Amino acid sequence: MSDFAQVQVTDLADDAQILDIREQDEWDRGHAPGAVHIPMSELPARVDELAPFLDRDEPLVVTCRSGGRVSRTLPWLEQQGYEVANLDGGMRAWHAAGKQMETADGSAPQVP
What we know:
By secondary structure, the chain is an alpha/beta fold.
């Protein structure tokens, strides 16, 4: 994944718009407040939902739990015309940094 920019958690606002490609149960347990959620498996069918990100001056920051899924997703998104970057350390790093998170049921956020 070295071909793609790495964005540090500390460089993003708590409400930054990032693309979270984790599964629904992971999202429900804790996600960044401003994140857009499209599970990796649904991206090909739902990529049009990302159209507002095409005209932005900064890359679309993509995250999963720790980076594995992002490494498979960034090349595909780039082929679709998106400027993309990886959230270094994924949601584990976001949570560890004490960044703001929301959950589906209001419980304490978790990133298992």
